[in-house]
Specification:
The complex is a heterodimer. In chain A, 75% of the residues lie in helices and 0% in strands. By secondary structure, chain A is mainly α. The model of chain A has no long low-confidence stretch (mean pLDDT 76). Chain B has two domains: 1-102, Orthogonal Bundle (Rna Polymerase Sigma Factor, Chain: A), CATH 1.10.1740.10; 107-184, Arc Repressor Mutant, subunit A. Classes of the chains: A mainly alpha, B mainly alpha.
Chain lengths: 159, 184
């Protein structure tokens, strides 16, 4: 067997995946070379031998696999930092807005919120809490963000 | 992707689409991966382990392992190669545990039925494959049962492609010789 034959025999193995352009030189060589033709016949005989010989998976195999699977863990923490960053950004904007007091409207909101919070909190603690709406709004945003994340995490875990 | 799709539509989804869907929490869709590849995974596991129950265990373990590690899998890569590599490893583990150092070639004699039916002939071919040495058995199983190209077989078994071709050539020669001795 010469070098050219060795190359063609190597190609014979993958014959079923060769395109027409790759098969053409091989077919020409097979027509002219008896030894390679013999190899070709052996490869064809083996292909024939294996046709239909694959053992099928047992009945109910897919059910057995599916029943052994647990839900994929969902990565809820993907949302953690964006949501917290968003809450923080809103907090900063609100804080700045309240400090600047650009309009009488903001001043009125600030005063109203302060009175409301102090009226609600005073009977509970006996003390008047120092007023800073920024803290309260920030705390509210963070509690909401954590609440949303927890609910979302539970929901996706049980999906 | 629309959730309200029929089973027929789902079976036409690519592996990549199914994997992405499963990773989004749609676990039942994984069934289409199992249905798509269960026959080839089981056939390869059977060829390597030589036992129905071991093959079932190995194939099942392979599908479960792939599912568990889907988050680390790059969906743009071919799932079939990844699955077959894991299936080969699972089969090797089970086969190594159960068979120990028993030489495969001397485990049994080929039964020569006078008038073999197609299923009997197919079973005889599988038995001949089982009697091959491990590497040839794995190469044969992946090439003929899982219908992988030599390059893919080399990738799965982490071998040189030329070595796969040589192994396949040897396996083919031995199988045909044994077959002709038994049946012709």
């Amino acid at each position: 067997m010469n070098e050219s034959c060795e190359n063609f025999v190597a190609m014979l193995t993958d014959y079923r995946w060769l395109g027409p352009r790759e098969r053409a030189p091989l077919d020409r060589h097979l027509a002219a070379c008896e030894r390679c033709r013999e190899e070709w016949r052996e490869a064809q005989a083996a292909d024939e031998l294996f046709t239909g010989a694959r053992a099928p998976a047992p009945q109910g195999f897919d059910d057995a696999v599916m029943s052994a699977l647990e839900p994929q863990p969902q990565v809820a923490t993907n949302w953690l930092w964006p949501v917290l960053a968003g809450a923080l950004a809103v907090e900063v904007v609100v804080a700045v807005a309240l400090q600047i007091d650009p309009t009488p409207w903001w001043q009125a909101v600030k005063t109203f919120c302060g009175q409301l919070i102090n009226e609600w909190s005073a009977p509970l603690s006996g003390w008047t809490l120092p007023f800073d709406p920024t803290w309260w709004i920030g705390a509210l945003l963070l509690v909401s963000a954590f609440g949303w994340l927890t609910l979302n995490h539970r929901k996706t875990e049980h999906a | 992707m629309n959730i309200k799709t029929t089973a027929v539509e789902r079976t036409t989804w690519s592996d990549e689409a199914i994997v992405r869907r499963v990773l989004q929490g749609d676990t039942p869709v994984y069934r289409f991966i199992v249905e798509r590849y269960q026959d080839i995974v089981y056939a390869c596991a059977y060829a390597i382990t030589g036992s129905d129950s071991d093959a079932k265990d190995a194939a099942q373990e392979a599908f479960i392992r792939v599912y568990r590690h889907l988050a680390q899998f790059d969906p743009s890569r071919p799932l079939k190669l990844y699955l077959m590599r894991i299936a080969v490893n699972c089969s090797r583990n089970i086969s190594g545990t159960r068979r120990g150092w028993e030489p495969l070639e001397e485990t049994s004699e080929i039964v020569k039925p006078a008038d073999a039916t197609a299923p009997e002939r197919h079973a005889a071919v599988r038995e001949l494959v089982e009697r091959l040495p491990q590497t040839l058995r794995e190469v044969c199983a992946l090439f003929y049962f899982a219908e992988h190209s030599c390059r893919e077989v080399a990738e799965i078994l982490q071998m040189n492609e030329s070595a796969v071709k040589v192994a396949l050539h040897l396996a083919r020669k031995k199988l045909l010789t044994d077959w002709r001795c038994a049946y012709e």
